[in-house]
Amino acid sequence: MRGFPANLMAIFNRDSDDEVARGARAVVVHAETHGPERRDSDARLEEAGGLALAIGIDVRAAQAFRVRDRKPATLFGSGQVEQIATLVNQEEAELVIVDNALSPVQQSNLEKAVGAKVIDRTGLILEIFGERAATNEGRLQVELAHLDYQAGRLVRSWTHLERQRGGFGFLGGPGETQIEADRRMIRDRMAKIRKELDQVTRTRGLHRARRQRAPWPVIALVGYTNAGKSTLFNRLTGADVMAEDLLFATLDPTMRQIALPGLDKAILSDTVGFVSDLPTQLIAAFRATLEEVLSADLIVHVRDIAHPDSDAQRDDVLDVLSELGVAGEGALDRAQAEPAAPPIIEAWNKLDLLDAEAEALARETASRRDDVVILSALTGEGVADLQRAISTKMTAGAKVYGLRIAAADGAALAWLHEHGEVLSSDAQGEETRVEVRLSDAAFARFGKRGQG
User: How are beta strands 254-258 and 117-120 bridged, if at all?
Assistant: First the structure.
């Protein structure tokens, strides 16, 4: 894990099988249970293979197994474990990726049974995040999530854990086992990271408050990983944020200034992509980053409308937004919208990948909704429609206000012309009386000008 302190890396690397090597040969398996699943097994296996590819793992085979009862020891039945072991031998695999959540005991038992390293879906996503995090904040968040995940997995196939420390060191009293010392070291590191992230959160909060006092609305792009958020971000801003056909190409949030019809200036934020069964450790660790969405004036939910599981991906994104306390227009009925939740526009992206029949159906469906825009961020088709939709949504509910502005305050008059519709302006001595149409958000921002 990049960025880990050497002493913690030593803990995780005591067993050389604990590392996921780039280029490792792997097989992917998924346990089909009787519980409700939004995707079929083929889609799950394909996505897990894409996640593995994102960090350079060579996936040789993928197979789903129907599991009637989850086995506490191995998740899979004994016969299925034998089939997995056979698959590992046939493909000469070094790694088994289980597209489910595994307990530490299940993970350890499977490794012994199949003769290869085993990681579950959470571990795989954490590996990706650990490789991709670029900023200091991102690395801290990933390290915290990884430590939280690994803390319960210190019992895995280690031979030194029963060794006891003596009573003369500064760390640990008499009889303290090595595993207890390791866990304490992890807890101490996690406490330190949380303090650092608390400071980051406070700083981010100050920046957020400063932006809210500034005369520019904030628009957040959210969506399932690989839905095309970064491509759309680049199209709207002229930036060169990494945009590849790769899961989790973007981890660290990026903000840029853009111009929109009738708004002049706005701030556009590109956020980390979501994924089904996003590890709870990551949601907790990245909460400070994702809370940028909470303070946005508008959320643009970018969807890969050409993906066969587009609706399921939408539901997964809305689940995460609901967990963050965000739900607005366009959310499912089950999502409980909060009064302050920002409105949502759905950007149905990748129009260029639809055939004629699918495109006609998508356009007909979208025509019945006022919160959907169909576009291709790659070709630019429909992007202007999205810009107009954003402007319409941002200025919805505008009211006419009568204001008195000091004649010398040219900046205030310019601000009103930029962010509202000035209906009349009458200079009277040392003040100017202005009638202007403003949205509630714009009027609130105008009132905060000059504060702080």
Answer: unpaired
* CB-based contacts of 70, cutoff 8 Å, min separation 6: 31, 33
pLDDT tens by residue, 290-301:
666 777 888 999
| Coil/strand/helix, residue 345 | strand
User: What is the Cα 384 distance to its own chain's centre?
Assistant: 26
* CA distance linking residue 58 with residue 382, whole number of Å: 37
Distance linking the first and last C-alpha atoms of the chain: 41
* Cα(198)–Cα(176) distance, integer angstroms: 31
Q: Hunting for tokens 């169909």 — which residue is that?
A: 374
Reported as a single tens digit per residue, the pLDDT across 364-406 is 999 999 899 999 999 999 999 999 999 888 877 678 899 999 8
Separation of alpha carbons 265 and 428, rounded Å: 30
Q: Are 367 and 360 in contact (CB under 8 A)?
A: no
Sign of the four-CA dihedral 43, 48, 54, 58: negative
* Maximum Cα–Cα distance across the chain: 91
CA angle 321, 266, 233 (to 5 degrees): 60
Edge to edge, the sheet with strand 25-32 lists 58-66, 25-32, 95-98, 117-120
Report the distance separating Cα 96 and Cα 87, nearest Å: 10
Regarding beta strands 372-374 and 421-428, do their DSSP bridges make them parallel or antiparallel, or are they unpaired?
unpaired
DSSP symbols for 368-413:
T-SSEEE--TTT-TTHHHHHHHHHHHHTTT-EEEEEEEETT-HHHH
Tokens of 137: 């904040």
Q: E strand or H helix at 258, and its extent?
A: strand 254-258
Question: pTM of the predicted model, to two decimals?
Answer: 0.72
By C-alpha distance, which of 123, 114, 3 is closest to 65? Answer: 114
Classify strands 431-438 and 421-428 as parallel, antiparallel or unpaired. Answer: antiparallel
> From CA 153, how far away is CA 227, in angstroms rounded?
33
Helix (H) or strand (E) holding 98: strand 95-98
Report how far Cα 136 is from the mean position of its chain's Cα atoms.
17
Local structure of residue 273 (DSSP, 8 states)? P
DSSP code per residue over 145-188: HHHHHHHTTTTSS-SSTT-B--SSSSS--TT-BHHHHHHHHHHH
